[in-house]
Amino acid sequence: MPSTNQADLLPALHQLQERFGYIPDDAIADLARTHNMSRAEVVGVIGFYHDFHRTPPGRQRLRICRAESCQAMGADALAMHASERLGVEFGATTADGEVTLEAVYCLGNCACSPAVMLDGELHGRVSTERLDAILAEGRGT
Amino acid sequence: MTQRIFVPRDASAVSVGAQRVVRAIEHEAQSRGLTVEIVRNGSRGLYWLEPLIEIESSGQRIAYGPVRPEDVAGLFDAGWLQGGPHALCHGPSEDIPYLKRQTRLTFARMGVTDPLSLEDYRSHGGLKGLERALAMKAEDIVAAIDTGGLRGRGGAGFPTGIKWRTVMNAGGGQKYIVCNADEGDSGTFSDRMLMEGDPYCLIEGMIIAGLAVGADTGYIYLRSEYPEAWDVLEEAIVTATREGVLGDNVLGSGRRFDLNLFKGAGAYVCGEETSLLESIEGKRGLVRAKPPLPALQGLFGQPTVVNNVITLGSVPWILAQGGEAYKAHGSGRSRGTLPFQLAGNLKHPGLVEVAFGMTLRELLYDFGGGSASGRPIRAVQVGGPLGAYLPESRFDLPLDYEAFAAVGATVGHGGIVAFDDSVDMAKMARYAMEFCAIESCGKCTPCRIGSVRGVELLDGMMAARPQQSNDDTLLRDLCQTMLDGSLCAMGGMTPYPVLSALDHYPEDFGLAPKQKEASA
Question: N or C: which end of chain A has fewer CB within 10 A?
Answer without folding.
Answer: N
